[in-house]
Amino acid sequence: MHEVSIAESLIALIRRHMPTNGKLIRATVRIGPMHGVVSEAMGMAWNIASSEAGWPAAQLNIITPPWRLRCVSCGRCWAPATVDEHCVCGFTKADIMGGDEFQLDSIEVDCPVKHSKRRSTAGVRARGRTLKKGVNHEHQSSNC
Amino acid sequence: MSTKVPIVENVLKLNDEMAIQNQRLFQQTGVFVVDLIGAPGAGKTALLELTLRQLKGVLDIGVIVGDPATCRDGDRLAKHSEHIVQVNTGSGCHLDANQIRHAMNKLKLADLDLLIIENVGNLICPVSFNLGQNCKVGMFSVSEGDDKAAKHPNLVVSADALILNKIDLLPYIPFDLECFRQDVAHLNRTAPLLEISVARNQAKAWLDWLTENAKRPEHLTKSN
Question: What top-level class would CATH report for the domain A3-141?
């Protein structure tokens, strides 16, 4: 049940970026299957942690990217159903190219002040991404 | 007015910041730190008892041992070393960097060559939490079944070394050793798989690996 710790850490991280007197509407996180986070448990933990933080109506949007592997022998990239899947070439060793994501992508805030106290410059890179829940595995397999 | 603020930061960034502080203190005092992660009953404490016995006079070793409740593991290890700190996490399923910070303050780090953190028995939760360690070691045992490496990829991928304990049980328990080895190699091509039997006092592979890396930690970079 590390979801409780993760939710608490998430709240603490969000506080750093919240504008004065701002109200959190939504947080979007990207958590790959490698981290063993159960969405339902994460949702429960989030409800408790966000309520205690004074944002009882804040929503958590969890994006779960698929596993992505690259065969060490033939270089093929694919999105396996499970991470122990071997390449079609028969080789048994692969590099993990995706599925280990563990980041806070963005927050949506209702605020009287225009900008957050601290704005990550790295955040600029997130612009233009499609933050859509339930990413199609097959579609992403070619982007390995 | 609603505003979207891009962030793109690690969810556990605050823990990571504390872990970096821990790491600096470890480096300043010259102590090599291992985070030992395994399921309850894998034999972590028994392995540490053996390690403290076998490496006495070779390395000065301290242990921070995490458990939800009781001081039983700490008491067992205290028979072999004066540098033992027990941490009870209550309902917490892992140790975090802040708990390690508090625990390390109870140790004389300058007296130690090696600090082993025995994490709470769990194959999932402890893996994501950086503690400031030099390396992460994942521990499995034959009695858990041969599918556990494949079922816990995060631990296998992030480990600098993997241990398979209780190999003395191989003749008695259905366990496909080749399948287990293949699963480990599929996910992690660099970490050695150390096959041992603590019950039979056969842990040379682990002791050699530990001693070598405690003296030459610079080539271990995966955990931090």
Answer: alpha beta
Q: Which of residues 16-75 of A touch B (CB under 8 A)?
A: 17, 19, 25, 29, 31, 34-36, 72
Q: Where are the domains of chain A?
A: 3-141
Query: What percent of chain A is helix, strand and coil (3-state, nearest 5)?
Result: 30, 25, 45
**pLDDT tens per residue across span A2-41:** 899 999 999 999 999 999 889 999 999 999 999 999 999 9
User: Residue B91: its pLDDT value, please?
Assistant: 86
* CATH class of residue range B24-216: alpha beta
Sequence-separated (6 or more) residues with CB below 8 Å from residue B218: none
CA distance A27 to chain B (A): 9
Residue A97 φ/ψ, nearest 5 degrees: -105, -15
ipTM field: 0.84
Nearest residue of B to residue A35 by CA position?
A: B154
